[in-house]
Amino acid sequence: MCGYMVQILSLSGITRDLEEGLRSKCKADIVKPYTKIFPDGEQYLRLPDALDQEIYVAQSLYPEQDRKIVELYLAIEAVKGLDRKVKALILPYVAYARQDKRFLVGEPISINALYQGLKIYGVNTIVAIDVHSPEAFSRLEFRLINILPHLFMAKYAESKIEFVVAPDKGALHRAKIVAEGLGVGLDYLDKYRDRVTGEIRVNTKELDIYGKTVAIVDDIISTGGTLAKAVDTLYSAGAKHIIAIVSHAFLSSKSIDNLERVGLKELIISNTIEQKISLPKWIKVIDISPLICPYIL
Amino acid sequence: MCGYMVQILSLSGITRDLEEGLRSKCKADIVKPYTKIFPDGEQYLRLPDALDQEIYVAQSLYPEQDRKIVELYLAIEAVKGLDRKVKALILPYVAYARQDKRFLVGEPISINALYQGLKIYGVNTIVAIDVHSPEAFSRLEFRLINILPHLFMAKYAESKIEFVVAPDKGALHRAKIVAEGLGVGLDYLDKYRDRVTGEIRVNTKELDIYGKTVAIVDDIISTGGTLAKAVDTLYSAGAKHIIAIVSHAFLSSKSIDNLERVGLKELIISNTIEQKISLPKWIKVIDISPLICPYIL
């Protein structure tokens, strides 16, 4: 294959690693805007000259979610100004996706607030990695290609996975894909509230993990607290070796220390977001661009 | 008059001082959302219970413009979720208003990119203080009430103003209102590029300011460089005393030092944006809420 087939306008949130993957593995032509920050803090952006008639626009919305969202809107408006068409947005990490309904009266649906405006510019399709709430995008009538990367990432586990666990029932669909793909057992951590103490506890009695290498599969590491607790619980229930496979990881020295302290042996994360700190060897970052390639042909 | 007539949902960008003005001088009922920041940096917002059927939403978009814009969208979406109506937005300072057209190919029109989405939520009217580019909002078919506060602010000048100067021809409309209101002379700094050195120079030969107290009238102090240069030029041309009346001022210790060094005697600014540092006595902050009151009756 000579030359590129698709062009991707890659914004500031896309990691170098993912950008390189999109270039070399998807054979995409990566173009970048000229950007700067004005003295008052406002962003400036200008698209490059050689823009195809139809392009993809890629942006990952972490860290500094609000700046990344504004940058995205500036870029999309500029694309429209050049009479070019956005074939799809590539959003490896979608911010503000947790608040996908009004849990309490008076709350916004953040997804509506921040993404609905993209429709003004004719954006209809979003290619994303493991969005927290796909339904919310469907309600906005976006076509959402929501890629779950865990089975692909599991290939890179050094330890042989013998059992897969979801940290709660709601996360079971992710773990199921991995368990089925590897042909191993599957379960989830059955949490309940202790009637006496009010604490959240886990019923581990029926977990078939004694002496096994167990993989925890989840969408996000935020503070790392949930994962650390799950690791602790699984060791107590007899697991021999624990690894975690997580799509998006906001890692800090503190969360890494916590995870190391509870004995997590291997953490596999994707390159959807830029890591602010250098990572120890037991944390592996996997380029998930091969999962995106099929959708930008 | 007993009780309030209008309700204003006041977001984080509105200064305490302006909020107090809207409360006491406009007799508005000020309500505020509950807000917090999640550990990952995302904003959370929840509207208060006692919300009128029709409300005003107030937000000033500096500093941290991008966060303030996102907060505004979250609030507007939440208002819609409660089936309440936004009578108008009150935007004392409108960010991203400079990029009101495509100066270069490939640039966005920032105003379109960031404000057009508000129309999805039925927002049609904006009450603003001295917007950089009113036309851009008209093109988006917003009703824009653009308040120029300088004549009102000029009342607070301790020195008697004898002449009014705009820093360039484009800013003349602001200065004209002040000159007419005070019944004094008016001119602007006629800038030209020196054909030999390429420097920007000012033709001061015909300025009728010798021995006079001169007021410079402008919309914004960003780095303070333009104002400092104007002050310097006017002293060279014979002004006795110089004051400045500016709608929006992003002040830093450095810009204040610069203005003091060139001999600015009095600076009058409005309370559209929060000042990050404490200001010296020769800088006066004027509450411009009385100018907003008539439009929220």
From TrEMBL, chains A, B:
InterPro entries registered for this protein in UniProt: Pribosyltran_N, PRTase-like, PRTase_dom, Rib-P_diPkinase
SMART domains: Pribosyltran_N (SM01400)
Coiled coil: none
SUPFAM superfamilies: PRTase-like (SSF53271)
GO BP annotations, alphabetical order: 5-phosphoribose 1-diphosphate biosynthetic process; purine nucleotide biosynthetic process
Record bears the keyword tRNA-binding: no
Keyword ATP-binding in annotation: yes
Pfam family, one: Pribosyltran
Residue span, Ribose-phosphate pyrophosphokinase N-terminal domain: 15-120
Catalyzed reaction equations: D-ribose 5-phosphate + ATP = 5-phospho-alpha-D-ribose 1-diphosphate + AMP + H(+)
EC number: 2.7.6.1
GO molecular function: ATP binding; kinase activity; magnesium ion binding; ribose phosphate diphosphokinase activity
Keywords: ATP-binding, Kinase, Nucleotide biosynthesis, Nucleotide-binding, Transferase
One of the record's GO cellular component terms: cytoplasm
Domain (Phosphoribosyltransferase): residue spans on this chain: 157-253
Domain of life: Archaea
PANTHER family per UniProt: RIBOSE-PHOSPHATE DIPHOSPHOKINASE FAMILY MEMBER, RIBOSE-PHOSPHATE PYROPHOSPHOKINASE 2
Membership in a protein family: Belongs to the ribose-phosphate pyrophosphokinase family.
Name the UniProt record assigns to this protein: ribose-phosphate diphosphokinase
